[in-house]
TrEMBL record:
InterPro entries: CRAL-TRIO_dom (IPR001251), CRAL-TRIO_dom_sf (IPR036865), DBL_dom_sf (IPR035899), DBS_PH (IPR035534), DH_dom (IPR000219), GDS_CDC24_CS (IPR001331), PH-like_dom_sf (IPR011993), PH_domain (IPR001849)
Domain PH: 718-840
GO cellular component: cytoplasm
Record Pfam families: CRAL_TRIO_2, RhoGEF, SOS1_NGEF_PH, Spectrin_5
SUPFAM superfamilies, alphabetized: CRAL/TRIO domain, DBL homology domain (DH-domain), PH domain-like, Spectrin repeat
Protein name (database record): MCF.2 cell line derived transforming sequence-like 2
Family: Belongs to the MCF2 family.
DH domain span: 527-706
Listed Polar residues bias regions: 488-499
GO terms, molecular function: guanyl-nucleotide exchange factor activity
Stretches of the chain forming a coiled coil according to its record: 296-323
Length: 973
């Protein structure tokens, strides 16, 4: 009678229908190979089935045995049957068991029991329920509830384990993506699924914990209560399932941590590879730009430009720093035990190699260009020193044999002491870098040109020193024609006076040797042509750069394929960014470049070319006025992908803002070229060159003035209606306002005001200069409008006591006086001269209008001539007084209004009375229109006779007002 064996009891109180339903519907589940309610030990020992059929028939016993024999899967040890208690059914059962025992096909014995006492002989009472006379506490509904819950929990554990196993299999079989976005998506998807499974695990654990608590609740009801074997078995089963679930969770988390780490490292790797490709492309582009700077320049300006480009390239090479940081990031990945170390390490090595190559190549090019700059500067210094030496040799000294020999010695010493070092350095540079032979040859050509000039002079001086057959009359040179030759270590550039000395020398040498003049002319023509060649080459380069901007940026803004890259701040603002650059490009491409090319063989015509196009060159003024707005817009959108894409297509080393500065640089370059041309020009075309230089300087001044004009704020009128801006500058200003004739000072200032003055044709503006800083950029001036004076009512006093740099500007007959202190005498003289020109121009305009009116009416009728004759005779009557007035104004040009009124009333009284008498006589005999004509004639003759150009407009107006007052009096009478 083993106490540990499992018992399956089929009680007699279960109805046959329910019993049949159990056997047919749930028997297979109830009798599972390892029922959850049985322990593994009980299943291994075996089961004993007790069938209680005391109140049933034999047919029920037979059916139960048949079902058990065919469906019970466990290790069955014994079948105990409580036979029917009724006599007849018991007899049938005994007979039936004997007859049908073999039909049941059971391998275990079947024991037929008559009573519970017989059953107690096989099974202990402690393992039997009270229905079978035992003491086992058993609640069938509780057993069903626990069994159902345990089976559901077991199914949940099994399902969860299968899900985890399937998810783990999917993770193990997943291939890692090759791009950043797919890796991000995969990491997000796996993380979401892991979180969902984590929630399922938590739910299963909560279910098992709740079930375990319910089973233990029975034992907690009373202190003496002990769990029955079924309850203990259920508790053990739940604990085993919870432990299994916990182990599954731990194993899953360990696997997930490894997989998640691998995905994160994969994402880091993809980011690293993507950044590596971008940085590598930028580095390659940077290296190409650096490699393209293979030129070493053929002149100082070109070398300086190349050095500036190289410096700009180095300053904008942030990609080098980015590459170094990226390589450092790769080292950090390697140190963190990344799984792709073999892929990361070579990329870090490659980045560092390219960075080192760029740094070494940049340093190498910097050294080469620096050396080239030194050599070219030395060549320029040598050439200029040589030309200066030739120009400084006095003609009168060369006319004697001793003087010629001395000059010859100077030339020979100069050639021997200087040229060898420069030539050696050039040849060393050529041997070091074979691809720069063309530029070295150009530099050598310049040396050879100057050397040829020395050789020609050398030959001429030898002839002069060798034979003095023809007497030569000494000619005294001009005072400035014999300057001392400066030291070769610090030789200045050839000035205008030195150039004239050179021309004097060559001219006077003509009567000594006729062919020397032609040779010297060839030398200067060679230099002029060299400058002309440089002008044309730089002009072609300038046009090419403008064309690249127009095609690569300006036109691309209308390209639909790149429209999505345009920043919103640039919408409909193309004209603001580029200004009138298309107009500048069309002018240079179609007109100016071709005209300069036509002057290639005739450099003396270049001045005419500039003069011919001086109106077209005014387009730069509009461009420069728009430049501040363009720079503000560029700072807002310069970093957009659109400009980066355009720059990449054009393969430009510099960004667009550097190219938008080219027109400003170009317009200032022309005057430098013209100055160089003037230094080596003489004779034909020199006057045009001087005029062209003055024109270009005037254009630059106009551009500069216009840049200040657009910064004026607070002026309510229209600046364009004030005429041309003539002058602008900052001054110290004192004010002296006088009321009537009392001459009381109004708010007299001892401390001057700082004012910026703008002189226009029609008005003089007083502004206060302010400097504003925006977005961390350099300060930009602005001018707040304070006061204005109409030029038609302005007078000027050139000299003020106490300071030679001061002058006065007075208004309305000195009611308002402004004492202006210039920063220098030159500035004062320019302003005084310009104001005089404005006042004189206004008077001449008035005089011209009167002349036109007078002479047009004089020829209409003969009566006009008669009246004009009469008026002329009348004016002769007080011509002496007029002359006195002229002498008075010559001595004191600043007459007051009271003095002028006194002169008008006293000195003109006689003439006006005569004029009044004749006018009365004319009114009685001629039409009213004739009187009007007389008035105009009189005003015109007054303008001529009184020399009104010596008076300011307020004084003129006073004279005319007096005439009109008298005329009105005549009409009234």
């Amino acid at each position: 009678r083993p106490r540990d064996s499992g018992f399956t009891i089929l009680p007699h109180h279960i109805m046959y229908r329910c019993y049949m339903h159990l056997l047919t519907k749930q028997y297979s589940t109830y009798m599972s190979p390892e029922p959850p309610v049985s322990s593994l030990d009980a299943a291994s020992i075996g089961f004993i089935i007790i069938i209680d059929r005391r109140k049933d028939k034999w047919s029920s016993v037979k059916a139960s045995l048949s079902r058990i024999a065919g469906a019970f899967p466990g290790n069955l040890q014994l079948v105990l049957v409580l036979r029917p208690s009724r006599f007849f059914q018991r007899a049938i059962a005994d007979l039936g068991i004997k007859l049908h025992k073999d039909d049941f096909k059971m391998k275990v014995p079947i024991v037929m029991l008559n009573s519970l006492s017989d059953l107690h002989g096989y099974v202990d009472k402690g393992q039997l329920t009270r229905e079978l006379g035992g003491s086992l506490e058993y609640c069938h509904s509780q057993w069903i509830h626990h069994r159902t819950a345990i089976e559901n929990f077991a199914m949940t554990v099994k399902t969860t384990a299968q899900m985890l196993q399937k998810f783990g299999t999917d993770l193990a079989e997943t291939e890692l993506p090759n791009d950043v976005q797919c890796t991000k998506d995969l990491l997000t998807a796996h993380t979401d699924k892991h979180n969902n499974l984590k929630d399922e695990l938590k739910l299963a654990l909560r279910q098992g914990t709740t079930l375990f608590g319910c089973i233990k609740e029975q034992a907690a009801k009373s202190e003496n209560h002990e769990l029955n074997p079924d309850e203990m078995e259920n508790q053990t089963t739940v604990e085993r399932l919870l432990a299994q679930l916990d182990e599954t969770e731990n194993a899953f988390e360990q696997f997930w941590c490894k997989h998640h780490l691998k995905l994160e490292q994969c994402l880091q790797l993809r980011h690293f590879e993507q950044d590596f490709r971008e940085v590598k492309v930028s580095l390659d582009s940077l290296m190409e730009s650096l490699t393209s700077l293979s030129d070493i320049g053929d002149c100082v300006a070109r070398v300086e430009h190349l050095l500036k480009e190289l410096k700009t390239l180095e300053e904008k090479a942030q990609v080098i720093e980015k590459a170094q940081l990226h390589a450092l990031h790769g080292d950090q990945l390697i140190q963190s035990n990344h799984y792709a170390v073999d892929s990361i390490r070579p990329k870090c090595v490659e980045l560092r190699r390219v960075c080192d190559d760029f740094s070494n190549e940049s340093k190498k090019k910097t050294d080469v260009l620096t050396k080239s700059l030194q050599i070219h500067m030395g060549i320029d210094k040598w050439c200029e020193s040589g030309i200066y030496l030739l120009a400084s040799q006095a003609v009168d000294k060369c006319q004697s044999q001793e003087g010629a020999e001395s000059a010859l010695t100077d030339i020979e010493n100069f050639l021997d002491s200087v040229e060898k070092n420069q030539l050696t350095e050039l040849r060393n540079l050529h041997n070091q870098y074979n691809n720069i032979s063309l530029h070295v040859l150009k530099a050598l050509k310049r040396l050879e040109d100057v050397q040829e000039m020395f050789e020609k002079r050398h030959v001429s001086l030898k002839r002069l020193s060798a034979k003095q057959t023809r007497p030569i009359q000494p000619v005294a040179p001009r005072p400035e024609s014999s300057p001392k030759r400066p030291s070769l270590k610090n030789t200045p550039r050839t000035t205008g006076n030195q150039q004239r000395e050179l021309e004097v020398f060559i001219t006077k040498l003509n009567y000594a040797e006729d062919d020397e003049l032609n040779r010297s002319h060839d030398e200067f023509f060679c230099l002029c042509r060299h400058i002309m060649t440089e002008l044309i080459e730089t002009e072609r380069l300038y046009v090419e750069e403008l064309q690249s901007i127009m095609e690569g940026y300006f036109a691309e803004m209308n390209n639909a394929e790149l429209s999505h890259l345009l920043p919103p701040s640039l919408e409909n603002k193309r004209d603001v960014l580029f200004g009138n650059l298309p107009e500048i490009y069309e002018f240079h491409n179609r007109t100016f470049l071709m005209e300069l090319e036509n002057c290639a063989e005739k450099p003396e015509l270049v001045g005419t070319c500039f003069l011919k196009r001086k109106e077209e060159l005014q387009v730069y003024e509009k461009y420069c006025q728009n430049k501040p707005r363009s720079e503000v817009l560029w700072r807002q959108c310069g970093d957009s992908l659109f400009f980066q894409e355009c720059q990449k297509k054009l393969d430009h080393k510099l960004s667009l803002d550097a190219y938008l500065l080219k027109p400003v640089q170009r317009i200032t370059k022309y005057q430098l070229m013209l100055k160089e041309m003037l230094k080596c020009s003489k004779g034909q075309g020199m006057a045009e060159l001087e005029e062209a230089l003055a024109t270009m300087l005037d254009i630059i001044k106009s551009v500069n003035d216009s840049m200040h004009q657009i910064a004026i704020t607070g002026f309510e009128g229209n600046l364009s209606e004030l005429g041309k801006l003539l002058m602008q500058g900052s001054f110290n200003v004192w004010t002296d306002h006088k009321k009537g004739h009392s001459k009381v000072k109004d708010l007299a200032r001892f401390k001057p005001m700082q004012r910026h003055l703008f002189l226009y044709d029609k008005m003089l503006l007083f502004c206060k200069k302010r400097e504003e800083t925006s977005d961390g950029h350099e300060k930009t001036p602005s001018y707040s409008f304070k006061h204005s004076l109409k030029m038609s009512a302005v007078g000027i006093t050139e000299n003020v006591k106490g300071d030679s740099k001061k002058f006065e500007v007075w208004y309305n007959g000195r009611e308002e006086v402004y004492i202006i202190q210039a920063p220098s005498m030159d500035v004062k003289n320019m302003w005084v001269s310009e104001i005089r020109k404005v006042l004189t121009g206004q008077l001449e305009a008035c005089r011209a209008a009167l002349y036109v009116l007078t002479f047009s009416q004089m020829h209409q009728k003969s009566l006009d001539n008669f009246i004009f004759f009469i008026m002329t005779m009348i004016l002769f009557t007080f011509q002496g007084e007029v002359l006195k007035y002229n002498r008075l104004t010559d001595q004191s040009p600043d007459l007051s209004l009271a003095e002028l009124e006194n002169f008008t009333s006293n000195k003109m009284k006689v003439a006006l009375k005569v004029w009044e008498s004749i006018a009365r006589w004319i009114l009685q005999r001629v039409l009213h229109q004739i009187l009007n004509m007389i008035l105009f004639h009189f005003m015109c003759i007054c303008a001529v006779t009184f020399k009104l150009n010596r008076l300011c407009l307020p004084e003129q107006n006073m004279v005319y007002s007096e005439i009109l007052r008298l005329y009105a009096k005549i009409l009234g009478s």
